[in-house]
UniProtKB/TrEMBL annotation:
It comes from Bradyrhizobium hipponense. It comes from the Bacteria. Residues 7-83 form the DUF3850 domain. This is DUF3850 domain-containing protein.
């Protein structure tokens, strides 16, 4: 299991933290199910990190190799859709 630290714009960060947004489209960095991503809230309006973090676990991955619905047709090469589980 790997651990990644990733920037997350405020409106996405808050929706994930609240459990409303349970997926994220990211560049495929070799994520695997069970990896933990530490999302770091980034205020894209003011151009700074807020200091808030939220851990999420990758629970499923869809990409061009492992398609989900239309992902193989619409995802650009090198990108994936991560299903996320919010960790306490």
């Amino acid at each position: 299991m790997a651990r990644f630290y990733k920037k997350s714009w405020t409106h996405f960060f808050q929706a994930i933290k609240a459990g409303q947004k349970l997926h994220d489209v990211r560049e495929d960095e070799g994520y695997q199910i069970g990896d933990v991503i530490v999302l770091q809230e980034y205020d894209n309006i003011n151009g700074r990190y807020t200091g808030e973090e939220q851990e999420v676990e990758v629970s499923y991955i869809a990409n061009r190799t492992v398609p989900c619905a239309f992902s193989s047709a619409v995802l650009s090469p090198g990108y994936c859709i991560l299903s996320l589980k919010v960790l306490a």
